[in-house]
């Protein structure tokens, strides 16, 4: 394999920086090729460094060094050492000024890290290590400097010039250039630097903070998108108000800017005062964006805004602490979305994502703790573990401490560490101090990878009216961590009586009550929880609200699960009961299929779903969620050896069977829930649209015999006034190849070919389709004029989604593997970060049937053998093969 010389970065090697930079003046003279960057820094030796006489070592990549001056004297470039990743200057004084001029070519920057151009806009992405692609610098988050940024650019091409902070000067220059100077009063690490220049329009609004300061809010987009920013602006104002009300945090600059760009590796970026967004998370109108898009925009806008306190004012000491800001900020944005919309729906969506993607990561060769201790390429660690398991860890602290104490802990954290770069330990220490609790064992969550499994056993003593729940925990071994410590976790539970009511208030037990729930704290490998004066044998409602990110081994009968599904006061657990029931039923069918027995639908399950269809709750989104079967990505985790085709067939059988048996009920649900003609983003309306989409998704499977059901789909597509309804119809139809499907997909393409975000949906629906012709279509779509390897949204919609299409990606011939692998090798030299993300479906290759295993292993070796392989892809390949 190539790339063996990449060196891992280790947490134990962390040392404070030898130098500090307090002040930085940046001047950009922008050109598509040959942008000149002058960086003038005030540098001094760090009094608390381990070493006080070493050379100055600055990070730098893909730079052309033009000139160097130390205390205004020019240094010959012969007297310094320049490597592919560093500039080393020997014998520097203790305090000095350094001026560096570098040259970069934004137009050729396809990696989308550093300074690049996207749809004629100059923009930057510096997290994690992009700033070193702009100038030589101490590009690490524990070096905080005050930035002044001067941008010079052709006025015609770039009427708008933006950087962090406040505008302090602007004016015209010679030869059609103009300039703007921005000053950011808050010291910040280089990863929060941002610059934007281009032809953009701005949408403006105002926010008055709790203490009465006026903040100007601006969203910058291309002229053609001017009318698609309203929802983002409303979301921003909601987020600002919420952070004041719930966390007592106010915004701290006079201006807050958001810029939407078309080419972006991630979702968005929290640069101080100047957020950069993937256009997907800003632009929306009902005609072109779905309800899901609207909700995602609200969540991401809030996420980036919340970073201002959790990430910017208090930042990370090093990148091992990434979850300090990401886990905490995801937790905050989840809380926000739960408050703005349906809390139960939000929780279900968050848990679905965690189970499908994080549990899968945690069980494979890329498993890592929330605070990793080693990496090759930090960009590979912007993971569901750091983000979403990290958020679960914060949520557990919130549950253990209770909301008031948690808030006091947060206040203490802000008070202690404002303006600092700190660690996850510092964060937990603030909470522990405020709560006056010992959280030592809890901290294992930060250092231990793997998803714990809980085993639950119940004992009912009728004579003494005593009920005992025994819970045992075990975390499986993960790479580099063969032995696991027990964790401290909160278990919220309820006891249901035979009438379905909560018994918790009536029983005697030493556990803290939280509303309807009891809080059990598991700290040992195994513990008994005893409840006395229990009037009858209860049905246990375990792990309410998914109070800990664990897998619970099934312990209830299907009848009990159906009971929880109907009666639990915890809406999350109602859904979860439906989900685990469906999981058990599908896996049972799969076992039959593999054993060549006839598959049958379990009558208990059928009855439970029948009841659900006949008695939908007021929160229609909840009913819609309960009707959806677990994704293949989730189901396969329970299998010893994965045969993706058999799994798909078993799941499809259950779906088809439900459709057939419940057709009348589903059709009634469909007709009873027509949304209003004018678009509104209320729970009621969103619920109607999603419930109808689920109904269609089942009903269309009966289309072969009942043509009118296909017509129902077509009718919704043609008459539906919103993108949500159109996508609902399209995604149902995508399952049934035929003339009608083709006609409608073609119609959609013709209508939307010039809207890239809508075309992403069109690509994704085809790449996700189980229909037999998917491989051929995807292959053809790679040459579609709207597709481009250079645009990450396109790559994710077509190739990323195809990699998650289990039947087709894992086709026994290996053609699916080949298709993806070829594109990864093509993409790696252009955008290694994105190429590495596409590797994900190969990572768990060892879990598949023998023939597939062999094919994937070969492919991994082939990718690993590429000349010039990036550190990003190399890390994924080598860890997968290890
Ligand atoms: N901090 C950003 C966010 O979560 C993510 C940016 C990461 N970008 C990257 N290239 N690794 O909001
Ligand atoms: Zn973030």
From TrEMBL:
InterPro entries: Aminopeptidase_N-like_N, Aminopeptidase_N-like_N_sf, PepN_Ig-like_sf, Peptidase_M1, Peptidase_M1_dom, Peptidase_M1_pepN, Peptidase_M1_pepN_C, Peptidase_M1_pepN_C_sf
GO biological process, one term: proteolysis
Its EC number(s): 3.4.11.2
One term of GO molecular function: zinc ion binding
Record-annotated Aminopeptidase N-like N-terminal domain positions: 96-192
Keywords for this protein: Aminopeptidase, Hydrolase, Metal-binding, Metalloprotease, Protease, Zinc
Cofactors required: Zn(2+)
Domain Peptidase M1 membrane alanine aminopeptidase: residue ranges: 233-443
Function of the protein: Aminopeptidase N is involved in the degradation of intracellular peptides generated by protein breakdown during normal growth as well as in response to nutrient starvation.
Name the UniProt record assigns to this protein: Aminopeptidase N
Organism in which the protein naturally occurs: Desulfofustis glycolicus DSM 9705
């Amino acid at each position: 394999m190539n790339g063996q010389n990449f060196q891992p970065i280790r947490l134990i090697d962390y040392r404070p920086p030898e130098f500090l930079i307090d002040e930085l003046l940046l001047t950009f003279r922008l050109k598509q090729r040959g942008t000149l960057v002058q960086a003038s820094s005030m540098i001094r030796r760090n009094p608390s460094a381990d070493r006080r006489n070493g050379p100055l070592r600055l990070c730098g990549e893909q730079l052309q060094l033009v000139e160097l001056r130390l205390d205004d004297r020019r240094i010959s470039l012969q007297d310094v050492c320049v490597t592919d990743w560093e500039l080393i200057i020997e014998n520097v004084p203790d305090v000095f000024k350094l001026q560096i001029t570098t040259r970069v070519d934004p137009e050729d920057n396809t990696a989308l890290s550093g300074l690049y151009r996207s749809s004629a806009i100059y923009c930057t992405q510096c997290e994690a290590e992009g700033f070193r692609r702009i100038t030589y610098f101490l590009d690490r988050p524990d070096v905080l400097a005050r930035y002044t940024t001067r941008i010079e650019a052709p006025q015609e091409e770039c009427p708008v010039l933006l950087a962090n902070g406040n505008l302090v000067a602007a004016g015209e220059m010679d030869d059609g250039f103009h300039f703007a100077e921005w000053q950011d009063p808050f010291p910040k690490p280089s990863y929060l630097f941002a610059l934007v220049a281009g032809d953009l329009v701005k949408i403006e609004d105002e926010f008055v903070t709790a203490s009465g300061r006026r903040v100007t809010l601006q969203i910058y987009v291309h002229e053609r998108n001017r009318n698609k920013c309203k929802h983002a602006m409303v979301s921003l104002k909601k987020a600002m108000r919420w952070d004041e009300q719930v966390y007592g945090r106010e915004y701290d600059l006079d201006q807050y800017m958001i810029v939407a760009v078309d080419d972006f590796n991630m979702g968005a970026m929290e640069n101080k005062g100047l957020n950069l967004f993937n256009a997907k998370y800003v632009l929306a109108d009902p005609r072109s964006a779905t309800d899901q898009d609207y909700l995602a925009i609200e969540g991401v806008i809030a996420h980036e805004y919340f970073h201002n306190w959790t990430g910017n004012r208090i930042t990370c000491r090093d990148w091992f602490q990434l979850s300090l800001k990401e886990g905490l900020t995801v937790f905050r944005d989840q809380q926000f979305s739960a408050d703005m919309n349906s809390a139960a729906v939000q929780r279900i969506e968050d848990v679905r994502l965690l189970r499908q993607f994080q549990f899968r990561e945690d069980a494979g060769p890329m498993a890592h703790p929330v605070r990793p201790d080693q990496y090759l390429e930090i960009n590979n660690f912007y993971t569901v573990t750091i983000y979403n398991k990290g958020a679960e860890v914060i949520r557990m602290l919130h549950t253990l401490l209770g909301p008031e104490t948690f808030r006091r802990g947060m206040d203490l954290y802000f008070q202690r560490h404002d303006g600092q770069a700190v660690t996850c330990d510092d964060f937990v220490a603030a909470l522990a101090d405020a709560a006056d609790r010992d959280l030592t064992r809890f901290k294992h969550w930060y250092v231990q990878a793997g998803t714990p499994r809980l085993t639950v056993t119940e004992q009912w003593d009728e004579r003494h009216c005593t009920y005992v729940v025994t819970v045992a925990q075990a975390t499986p071994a993960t790479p580099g961590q063969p032995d696991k410590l027990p964790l401290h976790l909160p278990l919220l539970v309820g006891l249901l009586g035979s009438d379905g009511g909560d018994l918790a208030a009536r029983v005697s037990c030493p556990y803290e009550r939280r509303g309807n729930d009891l809080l059990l704290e598991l700290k040992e490998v195994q513990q008994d929880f005893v409840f006395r004066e229990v009037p009858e044998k209860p049905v246990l409602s375990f792990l309410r609200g998914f109070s800990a990110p664990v897998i619970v081994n099934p312990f209830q009968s299907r009848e009990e699960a159906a009971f929880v599904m109907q009666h639990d006061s915890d809406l999350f657990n109602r859904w979860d009961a439906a989900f685990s029931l469906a999981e058990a039923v599908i896996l049972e069918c799969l076992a039959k299929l593999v054993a060549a027995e006839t598959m049958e639908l379990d009558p208990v399950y059928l009855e439970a779903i029948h009841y659900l269809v006949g008695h939908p709750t007021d929160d229609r989104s909840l009913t819609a969620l309960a009707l959806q079967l677990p994704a293949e990505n989730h189901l396969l985790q329970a299998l010893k050896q994965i045969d993706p085709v058999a799994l798909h067939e078993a799941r499809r059988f259950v779906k088809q069977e439900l459709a057939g048996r419940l057709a009348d009920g589903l059709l009634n649900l469909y007709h009873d829930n027509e949304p209003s003609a004018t678009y509104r983003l209320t729970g009621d309306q969103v619920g109607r649209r999603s419930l109808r989409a689920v109904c269609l998704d089942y009903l269309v499977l009966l289309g072969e015999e009942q043509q009118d059901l296909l017509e129902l789909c077509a009718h919704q597509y043609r008459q539906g006034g919103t993108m949500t309804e159109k996508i609902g119809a399209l995604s149902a139809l995508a399952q049934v190849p035929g003339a009608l499907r083709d006609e409608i997909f073609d119609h959609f393409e013709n209508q939307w070919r010039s809207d890239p975000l809508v075309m992403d949906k069109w690509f994704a629906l085809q790449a996700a389709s189980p229909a037999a012709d998917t491989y051929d279509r995807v292959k053809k779509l790679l040459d579609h004029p709207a597709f481009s390897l250079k645009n990450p949204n396109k790559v994710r919609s077509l190739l990323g989604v195809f990699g998650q299409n289990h039947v087709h990606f894992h086709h026994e011939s290996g053609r699916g593997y080949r298709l993806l692998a070829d594109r990864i090798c093509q993409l790696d030299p252009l955008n290694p970060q994105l190429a590495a993300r596409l590797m994900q479906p190969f990572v768990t290759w060892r879990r598949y049937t023998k023939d597939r295993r062999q094919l994937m292993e070969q492919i991994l070796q082939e990718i690993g053998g590429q000349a010039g392989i990036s550190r990003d892809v190399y890390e994924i390949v080598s860890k997968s093969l290890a």
